Protein 1
Amino acid sequence: MPVETSSDPDAVKEDAALALLWTVVHAPDGRLPFCRRCEAHRTFHRISRRRAYACDSCGAHVYPASSTPFAGSPVPLAAWLDTAVIVLDSPGKTRPNRVAGALGIDYRRAWRMTRRVDEIVQAGGEDAELLRRLAGLWKRHGHNQPDRVPDPGSPEDRIRVAACRIMAQRGIEATRIADIAREAGVSNASIHYYFQSKDEALLAAFRWAGDQLHATLQRLLDGNVTTLEHLRHLLDLSIPGDQGTFEEYLLWLEVWSRVRRHPAFLDECVRMSRRWADAVLGVFRAGVADGTFAPVAPITEVCERYVAISESLAVRSALGYSDMSEHAARRLLARFTAEQLGLPAGRLDP
Ligand SMILES: [Zn+2]
């Protein structure tokens, strides 16, 4: 079956990534690939619409990505290779921003991908070596030229992102304006231009983090998946896990500690809680409408319960309670949610 040629630049790039993987992993130095079923070197052809090649003699399928650290990832191979090039080329904290700009994805996803590549490189061994080879060839073949012009964002955006990261790491007391300025790559003066005080910067960072979380959830819910998958996304985001959600919860704690003295913080907390609860309610209602959920109480009440329980578990887990690991929090929340929505126990277990 011939492979259809595509004029979509993303598809072309993805084909190039697969072809590179195939050559490096299965047909190095121009040798014929080895077919395990034939137990001999054979010629292979690409199977259209799959990330696979087939043996011309016996038809056995081989998925080049399955022997790489990116096996099973829904992220395009080309995006992984782009990320690997950036990570290997530019040590330092700016990498997620560069990955986000080059791939046109949000910071959270970019951070996750950067971390994954970093883990592989740090672990060393065959995977790290393979990744270095792939990244080197990917770059040499000129595939890593970003299709999109990286958008470093306005100075104000950069300050928000930087404030979010620094304050989540150190807390607002230990954060100096100069730290935020350095992280954002702007002058102290420009921070003072946008924000009157550290509290104002914290509030802006908090809003920014909340918007990111909301945008992530909305994007997941827009995907063409089942109600149960929507619910899983919701559970996933409800407990701090990767650095993105972790920072957001740490910011929540910073903001909560200021609520009593600053009414603006309370307004923002209420607004963000409300928005989150509305999203939860939307998922629950959809599940009731399509018959997936059989809630044990009126759905608005089940929603309130979910928000209260998940918030408590999330805070304990974020603070590092010894009896509330991320896994324990996720498991408790999954069990509770299944019970509340009339799903079999264990159905939502992480
Ligand atoms: Zn074969």
Protein 2
Amino acid sequence: MPKLLLTLVAVLLFAGCPGGEVKDESQSGPRPTTVTRTTGTADAASSTIAVDLLEYEIRMPEIAKAGRRTFSIINHGKEAHSFRIEGNGLDIGLTEPLERGDTGQITVALTAGSYTISCPVDGHKGKGMTRTLRVE
Ligand SMILES: [Cu+2]
């Protein structure tokens, strides 16, 4: 699992990197190179979604914009909690639960639609640690 996650992050980072792809994009159209760079930077600036885990609740926005997004996850609870996102062909989570006070990050490419967020620690989903994220 860690290897899969790292590979996914690496692919996404490469895809979102404005440095290496600039020449190819400028050859496909008349747009100046500077326009391409500006677009990439603006996208990266709004890419983080904050997630708070506690007993037994997941606090985060209900709606997110499509694109490459990093979930920045904090365990504000007393027990160990984790994070999983499923939907639109995506199914990925933290490789290990977060202990109290720990933080974790997952970077994914979100497309428009509905995703289910949950805590995969035993029994927590049934106690309320599940919710829907709408991506538009
Ligand atoms: Cu939990």
